[in-house]
Amino acid sequence: MSWKIPPAGTWGGISTLLAALMLLVATAVQASTAPWQQLRPVGQGEMSWLWFKLYDATLYSESGHYEPGRYPQALTITYAKSISRQDLLAVTGQEWQRLGVGNQDQRRRWLQQLATLWPDVSSGDALTFYVDDAGLGHFWWRDKPLGSMPDPQFPAAFLAIWLADNSRDPSLTRRLRGQP
Predict the structure, then answer these.
(1) Which entry of 26, 112, 144, 157 is 20 to 30 Å from 12 by CA?
(2) d(CA 119, CA 83)
């Protein structure tokens, strides 16, 4: 049996084909990652009620520092308890009202839109709110897109629940902002 070495041009063609295939695979892997996975963590903390842990939260930004109104940013909440969509919506509406965020019509419209996006959550589920560099908000659940909020005022209103100076849990706010 006689083996022949392929001509040099064949090796060049195979190398080019392999390089193109590797680039295609790398692009597909990067495209399948969630956009906030390119961001750096700013801070994280835990929310508890009495002695029950409700969730862990992590804030992300491009710089790794909290800069209000500078996007992209993301907030990931990983739930420790099962919570119904209705309960999530009720608490969100109550917090907006308590914080004085938006007017009554805006809050009602936002809650109606969220009702079409949010699922019931179970222990271990992660819900991420990602604000892109154009300032528009997008929800992801279990690293899958749920939908977007078209109102440019929504991202600041939603993030205020955790990041406003007068948030429900100031120590969690400080930890999320990366402050001591």
Answers:
(1) 26
(2) 9
**84-97 pLDDT per residue, tens:** 999 999 999 999 99
Phi, psi torsion values for 35, nearest 5 degrees: -60, -30
- Per-residue pLDDT band at 24 (split at 50, 70, 90): very low
CA distance 108 to 90: 11
Please state the pTM of the whole predicted model.
0.81
Closest CA to 91 of 57, 114, 74: 114
- Cα–Cα distance measured from residue 34 to residue 145, given in angstroms and rounded to the nearest whole number: 9
Query: 40 to each of 72, 73, 114, 174, how far by Cα in Å?
Result: 10, 9, 26, 17
